[in-house]
Batch of 2 targets.
Target 1
Amino acid sequence: MQLKKYFTVLFISFLLPFLGNAQNLVHGKKLFETRCLVCHQADGGGVPNMNAPLDGSSNVVGNDIARLVRIVKGGYSEKVPLDGYYYNNVMTPNPDFKDQDIADVLSYIRTSWSNKASKITLAQVQAAKRKK
Ligand code: HEC
């Protein structure tokens, strides 16, 4: 029946964005566990004086997306205070990360633990890269 088909298509197109979103976070979590957890820890708490925490970091939930993209891709060891504390380990770069990987891992760290910031889209990562 025509109408049934119509509603099926409507239902699926309504669900897809949610499924896609959930998938990105699952992928982001997987990347975090394989590439970030060793330093930033499963609870995002980092290691005092060594590895910056991601949970509760004003930068991680902040609006400077270009900086976050740069850090994930290129690594980080500026040794400037982050929320008042210094961390002396060196963050390794992730040159193999595709733009979608960066979006997914940033979405994961911005929405995990106590962090409740917006997710990051592929378009935002691409725009951030064009800016620099
Ligand atoms: C080898 C350890 C290490 C790994 C692996 C690592 N980081 Fe880091 N990360 C650090 C350190 C150390 C700093 C702080 C460096 C400094 O202050 O100079 C940092 C800083 C950051 C910051 C900035 C935090 C702020 O408050 O400004 C972000 C964001 C970040 N890391 C995300 C990630 C993500 C995402 C991954 C995985 C893709 C990752 N890190 C993997 C050690 C690591």
Target 2
Amino acid sequence: MQMRTCGRSGIEVSVLGIGCWSFGGSEQDYWGKQEQYDANDVVAAALDCGINYFDTAEAYNDGRSEEALGIALKGRREHAVISTKIGPDNAEPAVLREHCEASLKRLGTDYVDIYYVHWPITKHPIKDAFDTLTALKAEGKIRSICVSNFGVEQLTEALQTGAQIDLNQLAYSIITRAIEVELVPLCMDNQIGVVPYMALMQGLLTGKYRTVDQIPPNRRRTRHFRGDVPPARHGEPGAEEETMHVVNSLREIAQEIGVPMERLSLSWAMAKPGITSVLVGARNREQIQSNAEAAEMEMTPELLARIDDLSRPLLEKLGANCDYWQGGESSRTR
Ligand SMILES: NC(=O)c1ccc[n+]([C@@H]2O[C@H](COP(=O)([O-])OP(=O)(O)OC[C@H]3O[C@@H](n4cnc5c(N)ncnc54)[C@H](OP(=O)(O)O)[C@@H]3O)[C@@H](O)[C@H]2O)c1
């Protein structure tokens, strides 16, 4: 498994990381019920494949994702790089400290390797928040300060606090390329690695859905799909035809070169400039094993350019807004 360094932190992560949002989930949660033995199996399968990076958040299933990851990693903590995330509304210094301690407790560990601010901070002074994170790092509670969903303006403000920021975790896939326009170059100029999430677009880029109707409604909330059908909330017309054209053409390319489509989708993301580790959620051992093969796949410049050309019209239609759930003035990423 290929390893890459997180910004200037010296932390080495596998080029494929495991998204643990579904861990600890119940019937009412976004990803539905996930049993602890499935989380244990996903973690064991990942470690067997050389994957060392596991991503969670205090917000995922009200802390139960952190708990489930902590249990699954029991006795193997030193083999893993753990990232968790503080909610932006919890960024007031005393609250931030309390929440960091609570995450450590749920994870059953003394330190978190990578600590992200989950979304841009809007309700608290940014300088105070990043100074607190820098103090937590000096105390050894966290090893690296990182952000998620921060746009050009927000990342620039965060950098002005003087904190060392190592990663920006962002929505990025063949059909969500807005970050390429301005944000990836800014990250690269500042030695900040990009960690893509939704690299498989919640299953769409595995090729398992051939029409929009086949996609579960809660996976149709992004600006690719009509905004007037709940639970979508962006209010834009969407780009369903263009989206399905890319997906169905990608399936043909995958068949032509003889690789599963999920492998092609992940390998494309791994090969793009500025990328540190590509996150993907997985239900079971089989999905992990297939996804791990993406790290071994040769992505030629010709194939990369062919896929870029295929998805460029969709990028142009959806535009440079990096928030794929909220449009125009309500975009949370500036
Ligand atoms: N920072 C943020 O704001 C943010 C936001 C979202 C996610 N994330 C992170 O990113 C992680 C990934 O979540 P995501 O929402 O981006 O989902 P995703 O990784 O795009 O999709 C995960 C789903 O893809 C399907 N899948 C994965 N591998 C497969 C394979 N080989 N064959 C067929 N299907 C496969 C599974 O769907 P089925 O359930 O249908 O089997 C799985 O549940 C999260 O766990 C979280 O850590 C971060």
